Amino acid sequence: MTNPMATAPAQPVYDVDKIRADFPILSRQVNGKPLVYLDSAASAQKPNQVIEALVAAYQDTYSNVHRGLHFLSEASTDAYEAVRGKVADFIGAASGDEIVLTAGATMSLNLIAHSWALPRLQAGDEILLSIAEHHANIVPWQMVAEKTGAVVRAFPMETDGSFRMSAMTDMISAKTRIISIPHVSNVLGTVFPVAEIARHARAVGALLVVDGCQGVVHMPVDVQALGADFYVFSAHKLYGPNGVGVLWGRADILAEMPPFLGGGDMIDRVTIERSTYAEPPQRFEAGTPAIAETIALGAAIDYVSQIGMAQIRAHEQDILSYAHQRLSAVEGLRLIGTAAGKSGVVSFTMDSAHPHDISTIIDNDGVAIRAGHHCAQPLMDFLGLPSTARASVGVYSTKQEFDVLATALEKVNRIFG
């Protein structure tokens, strides 16, 4: 019989100091000051566990994968292919066969655009985006549209950065073939309601593509529950190495897609006259892959999974709440993107200085933020801004770092005010 007085198991304490100790770069100084790294949205720092996995892959077992029968090749192949299963489990995919390993999210989006969209779109078909897209989720669609006669359209955001469903649904029609959105905006931090958007896409027979670069790093993701057709992300934002990305696609869709690149390892049979191709996902993985880097991506997934994505989200939400409160007290500072439930980033402008000047000045205090258009020029045009400054959070971020940032921004006011 259940004891009604029994208490629920205690949740593990989020030990940010212990986590920070895993990241060697966080112990260094910049300009004689302790590094305050608030640029994780551009690229996250790497824990020892990932660095060690990368070194071990080169030092202990390195060999090309899939092509050798000797010990090292088989060891590398086993470690490399195991990552496919880790990724599938991490994002709730039905199978590792739905995981295409690429050179990054940008390549993943280009693969979808050129392998699925290019052979299918016709003049007058529409590709629907948000105005908040990263250039990587705009330019590939423009390239396809130029070749097919399709049209790229974008729906607006609210002035506070919120997503309004009617702004999107008012633009959906029978001509809509693709809807491609971010899971989380890299400028506004807005979390898009992917599952609801997926229902609207299905209602008109459109495919839903999700740029998950800023989503999968900040919250639990279940691609089957989201109802998307494709979901992409990069390893380097998930505390893994550069040069590796993931494309998840539904198995039935991948099976219908021709290869994007030709070469070794993506074929079934080659003659001078013609070639036949391997089944997905190998069909889309021409050439020698980033072997050690992919193995290290597996270590990055192990790392965040051990902490727990729900715990990571709770920690980061607490930090973001504090960041908004602390930065709002800085004179002349305007927050850009204040949607409820936002994630990952705090973008802002200041009356006294251009974002580039802000970034340069606070770098003297060891504070690293991003300044510019963040590869989102259409959004900047929509907001009437040339650029913003952007601080972003990660598993290792602390409230004290935003105290240092706020103090440094007050110095900016003194210099330029």
Textual characterization of the structure:
The chain folds into two domains: about 15-40 and about 310-415, Alpha-Beta Complex (Aspartate Aminotransferase, domain 1); about 50-305, Type I PLP-dependent aspartate aminotransferase-like (Major domain) (Aspartate Aminotransferase, domain 2). About 40% of the residues lie in helices and about 15% in strands. The protein contains 14 helices and 17 strands. The chain has a seven-stranded mixed sheet, with helices on both faces. Helix 5 (about 140-150) links the parallel strand 5 (about 125-130) and strand 6 (about 150-155). It is globular. About 45% of the residues are buried. The model has no long low-confidence stretch (mean pLDDT about 95).
Task: Provide the descriptors you would attach to this structure in a database record.
single chain; 417 residues; alpha/beta; Aspartate Aminotransferase, domain 1; Aspartate Aminotransferase, domain 2; 2 domains; seven-stranded mixed beta sheet; four-stranded antiparallel beta sheet
